[in-house]
Amino acid sequence: MNGAVHSDQTIIEVSGLTFGFDREPVLESVSFRISKGAFVVVIGPNGGGKTTLLHLILGLYQPDRGRIRVFGEEPGRHPQRTGYVPQHGNLAPGFPGTVEQVVLMGLPHGGRHGPGFRRDELDRAAEAMQRAGILELARRSYGALSGGQRQRALIARALITKPELLLLDEPFSNIDPYGRACIHEMLEDLGTSLTRVMVSHDLGITRQSVSQVLAINRIALSGEGPWITDEMLELMYGRHDERCPMSEHLLVGYGGRSA
Length: 259
Hints:
Elements lengths: L9 E12 L2 E12 L3 E5 L6 H9 L6 E6 L11 E4 L13 H6 L14 H14 L14 H13 L5 E5 L7 H13 L5 E6 L11 E6 L1 E6 L5 H8 L7 H9 L6
Parallel strand pairs: 3-7, 3-8, 5-6, 6-7
Antiparallel strand pairs: 1-2, 1-4, 8-9
């Protein structure tokens, strides 16, 4: 399966983006574009600016310089068209609600309970759970789920508005390898009607279904297809020549290749 996506419609366009906290630069002169239907993996070391970039795309921060356009407009103009799964969910593992109740929280006017939900809202929750592969868990307690199942519930919560863009920040954190594989497969199965942007520091998550890799470590390198290039590895981890055991580990273990 080829990860390439061919689309004339740009969902996210970032040009000359610079941003920092207290005069300390986090991102500098970042430029890239993401087309409709793409499956993009954003990789980089901890502290490299990946989560900050997502927050800028969501409109939670404003650039110091440069610009961001989402659906052709400034970020935050169309919140229902964007689903977001944060790195640390705002629900404790012991949350006493059901999976269905968690998913219903993703509605624009979430927070209502029980009979307050209309039939069409319950149907939307069922559809979101079906897409996330957890419909059979609808009546289960959220706190009784495995880490991977809880993450799927949070993804379903983000899908309930039927967004066109899904942003995920480290969705594989604290999840076993089997759970990671299941979530990755689920994200693939969502299809190209949904643009997916997934942040991770784990280089091993790239697959053939990935249409674009964006490497971030204050500056950015973008490449078409699922390949991690030598230049991306150098940006993230510094230069390792052929005599360094780490060089072979990075290139062979993670599929790196020259641009």
